[in-house]
Each structure stands twice: as C-alpha cells, then as structure tokens.
C-alpha cells in the first residue's frame, strides 16, 4: 500500500499546477537551464522566454542551440518576450564548468533560478567522463554539484537583493521515478562511488537519488548562508534548493535504454510540455518557501506525498553528507 501511494501519483499525475498560460511575468529574472537544446529543457526554455525572462541555454552543441533559439524566437507569439543566450558547457568534462561560470558572471549580476536539468541514462560504464567518473554520476551529479557550488555566491546575493521576491531564488535538481522504485536503501552507497556497478540502470538510479541528497545538502548550506537581510526577512531571503521528478518523458535521454522497456512504458509517457510544467512549478510556484528546502517535487507540480522512509533516514544518517564530501573532493581542482 505504501508503495502504491508513492508510485501512483507519479504515473497518473494530477493536472499541472502551473503552466505557460498561468505563469506570471518573469521579466527581470535570469535563469540557467542545462540540457536546454532538446526535450524538457527546450520546452522549459520556451516557457521562460515567452514570459520575459533572460534564459541561458547551457549546452554543448552551439549549432543545435542557435537553431533552437531561432525556432523559439521566430515562432513566439508573446507580447513581452525575454532573451535567450547560448553559453557553452560540457557536463562530461569538469574543466568546462568554471569557464562557463566566469563568462556568465561577466554578463549578469543576478541569477534567479538554476535548473540542473541535463542528464544521461543507460550509458555503459565504459563511457566514463573526461575525469574518469562513472557517466551517470559524473554528468548527472558531480558536474551539477560543481556548477551549483560556483554559482552559490550570486544565488545568495540575488536572494538577498532588495528587489528580489522572498523565496523566489532556487536551485532545482532533477530526479526520477526510479528513486522510489529501485534506489538502494543507502541511496548512494559510498563503496560504489569509487567502484561503480556495471549495471547502467542501477547507476542511473543512484545518480538521481544523489540529486535528491544534493538538493538537501545545498538547502542546508543556503540556510546557514549570510544574506544581509533584516531579521524579519532573513528566513525568506535565502535560496531554495529542491529536487523534482519532472515525469517519465520519452526524450533522447532514453536512447540507450532497452527497446522492450521503452515499449512497455510507452503508455505512461508524459509530453515534454508536461515535464516542463513540473519544473516550472518547482522553479516559480509562489507556494514554495525556503522551509521546503530538500523536498521532493513530483509530476506535474506537487509535493511527494510519501517519500521513502529508508532514504530519508539515509539522508539524516550521514549518507548525504558523505556523498557531498566525496563530490567536493573530486571537484576541488576544477575551481
């Protein structure tokens, strides 16, 4: 019964709580979206652009990014569109993260939302990252960890700014239904960080659980950060860090998945727009506060009703802290 309570609302979600039609103006807000040239990230970029935000497409392929920008800007019917900018980053190579941040900081004085949306799935262990990391762990967790770490100062400053709406500055980490169905009880087994499994699906699941752990750890970081606000506003003038399972969407991330698995799950796939609405709620809902830091969003914009108790215990019992310490160690030389 508990299992059904966790899974059912993610397979058969309620109606989207926030959509492009109901999103308030995002004029003046700056957003970074990784993995934004296709799938959910591309749909999310379009929504933010139409609402007036300045959106940074953080991606590897410049040609693909500029084609996407052209398609969005020439077909938009928005009366007050924003701006879309491409900025190169390769999450499979940690050497590209600091240059990305340096260029971004030279162009912007604020950052309202960081969507750590990019990811890979079902990639064999042989396709390690440039630094030799297991591909799911390296691309889905370690690179976003470094990116969020290097952007923490501007996020904190934006949250504290006088013209920033309280509770509106956020970091969103991408999770998956597999966290509920398949994650090991430790969430991120420490021994598998250095000696990963050959099982690509297990590695993907661990990486998505790791993103929840990192969302929780960053929430704790931001809670203790100095924001320079008055006592009455201090708690709200901080950065919100949460994780979100956008939905099970048929995107390029599953290109390496077994076709039988795709065929069996096809009836339950949501659209990329549906997935984008989940992340939109996580990034923009006025119902989310700093006190929600570390919580888990499910499709299409609601809180997880029944997170796994063993994973909550793993986070509280030190596994999340161990994972954060490991991520800090492997990214230290790239700062």
Automatic annotation (TrEMBL):
<keyword id="KW-0560">Oxidoreductase</keyword>
<dbReference type="GO" id="GO:0016491">
    <property type="term" value="F:oxidoreductase activity"/>
</dbReference>
<dbReference type="InterPro" id="IPR002347">
    <property type="entry name" value="SDR_fam"/>
</dbReference>
<comment type="similarity">
    <text>Belongs to the short-chain dehydrogenases/reductases (SDR) family.</text>
</comment>
<dbReference type="InterPro" id="IPR036291">
    <property type="entry name" value="NAD(P)-bd_dom_sf"/>
</dbReference>
<protein>
    <submittedName>
        <fullName>Short-chain dehydrogenase</fullName>
    </submittedName>
</protein>
<keyword id="KW-0521">NADP</keyword>
<dbReference type="Pfam" id="PF00106">
    <property type="entry name" value="adh_short"/>
</dbReference>
């Amino acid at each position: 019964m508990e299992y059904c309570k966790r899974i059912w609302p993610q397979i058969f979600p309620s109606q989207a709580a926030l959509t492009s039609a109901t999103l308030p103006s995002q004029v003046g807000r700056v957003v970074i979206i990784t993995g934004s040239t296709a799938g959910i990230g591309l749909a999310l970029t379009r929504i933010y652009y139409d609402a007036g935000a300045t959106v940074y497409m953080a991606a590897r392929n410049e040609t693909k990014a500029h084609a996407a920008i052209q398609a969005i800007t020439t077909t938009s019917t928005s009366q007050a569109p924003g701006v879309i900018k491409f900025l190169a980053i390769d999450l499979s190579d940690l050497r590209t993260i600091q240059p990305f941040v340096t260029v971004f900081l030279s162009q912007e004085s604020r950052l309202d939302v960081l969507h750590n949306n990019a990811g890979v799935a079902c990639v064999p262990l042989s396709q390690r990252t440039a630094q030799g990391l297991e591909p799911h762990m390296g691309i889905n967790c370690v690179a976003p960890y470094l990116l969020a770490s290097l952007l923490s100062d501007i996020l904190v400053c934006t949250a504290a700014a006088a013209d920033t709406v309280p509770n509106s500055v956020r970091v969103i980490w991408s999770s998956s239904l597999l966290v509920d169905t398949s994650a090991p009880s430790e969430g991120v087994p420490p021994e598998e960080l250095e000696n990963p499994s050959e099982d690509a699906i297990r590695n993907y699941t661990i990486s998505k659980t790791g993103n929840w752990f990192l969302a929780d750890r960053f929430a704790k970081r931001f809670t203790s950060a100095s924001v320079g606000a008055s006592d009455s506003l201090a708690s709200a003038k901080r950065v919100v860090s949460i994780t979100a399972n956008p939905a099970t969407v048929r995107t390029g991330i599953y290109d390496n998945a077994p076709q039988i698995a795709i065929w069996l799950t096809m009836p339950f796939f949501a659209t990329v727009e549906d997935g984008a609405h989940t992340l939109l709620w996580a990034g923009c809902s006025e119902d989310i506060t700093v006190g929600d830091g570390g919580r888990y969003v499910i499709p299409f914009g609601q809180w997880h009703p029944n997170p796994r108790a063993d994973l909550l215990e793993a986070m509280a019992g030190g596994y999340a802290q161990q994972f954060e310490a490991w991520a800090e160690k492997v990214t230290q030389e790239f700062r």
